[in-house]
Amino acid sequence: MTTDERERPDGLAGEREMLEGWLEFHRATLAAKCAGLDGKQLRETSVPPSDLSLLGLVRHLAEVERGWFRRVLAGEDVPHIYCTEADPDGDWHPAEDDTWEEAYATWQGEIARARELAAATPSLDAVGAKRHRTGTAHNLRWIYTHMIEEYARHNGHADLIRERIDGAAGE
Questions:
Q1: Are 52 and 92 in contact (CB under 8 A)?
Q2: pLDDT of residue 4
Q3: Is residue 10 included in any domain, yes or no?
Q4: What is the CATH classification number for the domain harbouring 76?
Q5: Which residues, 6+ apart, have CB-to-CB distance to 89 below 8 Å?
Q6: H or E segment to which residue 30 belongs
Q7: How many domains does the chain have?
Q8: Does the reported pTM lie above 0.85?
Q9: Rg of the Cα trace of the chain?
Q10: What angle do CA 80, 143, 120 make, to 5 degrees?
């Protein structure tokens, strides 16, 4: 596992460039934590009774990218990818036939769409077109900050899972 190809934002970058840079850094970190593992390893859970796996983390973050950028920021009416009424935590519960290739492609697709939507948003102060399911409104600055927090927290989980799988550890 190599994480040294990630780019940190310039320490003197402007606010938007800094937020975008740290989000990209954390996206790349999760990809690096998953690199080089096979499908079985990517499904390994952390510790019982947890359902937390690297595959589940990628699926979860695809849902999170979709929720904040497509639903909240852009107001798109898009369904959940993995979560259903029957299994609201379906992102954490891949079925036997769910593959890494599909999850990774879906995650990357959601990231690409998030980048497009954010780039089309003229200001960090721009408020999302829809309110979050909690009823609160959020501007792009808040969304970026939350996404960085979301990835950072889950990258800590990914680091522990990866270390348990094959001993690889890193920032």
A1: yes
A2: 67
A3: no
A4: 1.20.120.450
A5: 51, 83
A6: helix 15-34
A7: 1
A8: yes
A9: 16
A10: 85
CA distances from 93 to 40, 55, 80, 86 (A): 14, 9, 14, 12
Q: Is residue 39 part of a domain?
A: yes
Write out the two tokens for 62. 């695809």
Going by the DSSP 8-state scheme, the letter that residue 49 receives in this structure is: T
Residues in the chain, how many? 171
Residue 68, domain member (yes or no) = yes
Q: Which two tokens stand for residue 5?
A: 């190809």
Beta-ladder partners of 127:
139
Residue 3 falls inside a structural domain = no
- pLDDT string in tens for the chain (171-residue length): 555 679 999 999 999 999 999 999 999 999 999 999 999 999 999 888 899 999 999 999 999 999 999 999 999 999 999 999 999 999 999 999 999 999 999 999 999 999 999 999 999 999 999 999 899 999 999 999 999 999 999 999 999 999 999 988 777
Instruction: Name beta bridge partners: 45.
Output: 53
Whether the CA torsion 56, 29, 163, 154 is positive or negative: it is negative
Range of the domain at 21: 15-166
Per-residue buried b or exposed e for 3-28, using 16+ beta carbons within 10 Å of the residue's own CB: beeeeebeeeeeeeebbbbbbbbbbb
